[in-house]
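User: Modeling request: complex.
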Amino acid sequence: MVLRVTTLDQLFASRIATVVPDAIGPALAAEVRARLDRAGYARHALLDRGSYDVALDPDEPALAGALAGLAGKLTGRSLVLADARALRLGPGDYVLAHHDRSHDEPLVELMLDLSPASVPGADVHYRRHGRVVFQVVSRPGALSIVERGPETACHHAYISKRHLGACVVRLVLRLRDA
Amino acid sequence: MWRLGPDWSDERGLAAAWRAAQPFSHLVFDEFVSDTALPALLAVLEDEPVERCETDLFAFEASAPEPTTAAFRALRTSFAVALAPALSRITGKTVARADMRAYAYRVGHYLLPHSDNQLGHERALAFAYYLPSPAPPDGGELELFRCPVERGEIIATESARLIEPRPNRLVVFDVSDVSLHQVREVVGGLRISLAGWFYA
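Assistant: Request completed. Predicted assembly structure:
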């Protein structure tokens, strides 16, 4: 795991919004993807909220522990895992902002891009009051670390049907203070 | 400009069709504007600027909510004047005014599933009128969903009707909590429309 931070505290005032590129190599990402596939996804198809595959509480304790440790170093906080899920999106899939799970306390959200290849436009946007304040572009192996409060909403942008065979896999971890 | 042709003469039949339509009330009218009036309509739109609009829900180009030209404002008013009385009788919803924007969906543009029912907006009926395109669109269908509800919550969303964006076609549909619809992604060509809502 490479700890190379390229973007810090963008537009989040005192909060951290960071992308760590190459946080995970392609071989390990492929292993994790394969394990997630074997464990299985469930299809979310309430289309007024989102269209995607989801695996709740994926059994990846070592990876989650390493990522939580990295987030703790970057934020200077002692963090523990609040919840985890893996999302898989293909052409025509999306997650709308109003489907983003609300939370009252500040937390740190990690998103590890496990995708086999970059998909144009398959970005994650963090919004406050409707305005995009942080954008995470599709980049396999990258990890985004975002300190977010209850006023921040997140959505996964629509993936164009023109990208036949596109597959976006994201491991999403939410951390809270220990 | 706006032609309420023979299709509109049987209001009792249209009212029955409106009530029976699935998954929710809607009507489709083809050849809505006369061939002779169409050039003038297109000329009005030539002068109305559009700009790219994008959120988590949509990506398209649209004119401003309030038209910038007097000609487009007049077009909007004449549309409401021509249709509101008949639609009030047909749908049972009393409507008087309408807003209207011009939309251009290019390749990759879409409008994801949503209902138009928003607190404070008082939208009663939605409409879309498809214009002839120099490059007829591939995709861009209006898709209507059936949404079973339990205890006030939508528990499923099932595709129930696809309406092609044929030139000179007008679609009118109900606005409610379960009038879920989308514009499918345009994967080729250009989809041009006028769309908006009727208000009480």
